[in-house]
């Protein structure tokens, strides 16, 4: 059953050098207990989608379309209603754990705060719950970790603290924005394990925003590939890794070390002077005449959707 339904979402930023078309007519849904990975290169619009869902975009953003959460359009609800949803229903874990945590407070006090404020738990019960969460998140000495400050913990440990905070209120949706960015391979492995724990313990739906295909492969049920502000392919993760459909998806997979490290030709187009037609056409080895004239629609193939004329 759908818990989030995004329809025709477009986000444009007005800037002194022109309008930046960050997200264009993007639609997708998220089902209960599902993990959906939004994958693409830096600047393709993934984080803009995450911030649109919880309406945390700067004032120069123009947002159109709809974002239905349990039937409520998040783009239309009042700020006070949205604040409640942000606090209790949709948790977001931002990219940089050391910037997201308050350096002046112990990690324990940052975990118990939402429990005391929103769940009206007693201080002792919230401490017990926090210590239990830290244990679930793999801290071998959770009581000691509870009393530590963010600067005393590694980047990977702070990432686990953010996951613990996200889990406190048992939200319906957790949005994780590049949770493994900048971490070494061992810590990436740890974070993948912690997310698997969250999926098992919390039953939350997860939107995983990542540029790392191997993280998406391990954690997601479905995968959506983004290119220049658009989803160009979406479907079951297993099928995607067996046979990616869109030429850009194929190029992305070929850039993985185990597939030969072959970088895609060219670079992503400008978000201001957007190419006509399929945005990938200047780089596409299969382009046809129509590709540079009209934006392709989504076509269905093998229970997946792909925005490419080859599947017309
Ligand atoms: Fe290539 Fe055309 Fe498909 Fe775009 S629509 S990916 S240019 S074949």
TrEMBL record:
The reaction(s) this protein catalyses: Ni(2+)(out) + ATP + H2O = Ni(2+)(in) + ADP + phosphate + H(+)
Predominant localisation class: membrane
Domain ABC transporter, chain residue ranges per copy: 4-253
Protein name: Nickel import system ATP-binding protein NikD
GO CC terms, sorted: plasma membrane
GO annotation (BP), single: peptide transport
Statement: the UniProt record of this protein carries the keyword ATP-binding: yes
UniProt-listed Enzyme Commission number(s): 7.2.2.11
Localization: Cell membrane
Assembly description: The complex is composed of two ATP-binding proteins (NikD and NikE), two transmembrane proteins (NikB and NikC) and a solute-binding protein (NikA).
Keyword Membrane: yes
Topology within the bilayer: Peripheral membrane protein
Listed CDD domains: ABC_NikE_OppD_transporters
Species this chain originates from: Candidatus Methanofastidiosum methylothiophilum
Residues in coiled coil: none
Domain of life assignment: Archaea
A single MF term (Gene Ontology): ABC-type nickel transporter activity
Record keywords: ATP-binding, Cell membrane, Ion transport, Membrane, Nucleotide-binding, Translocase, Transport
Pfam family, one: oligo_HPY
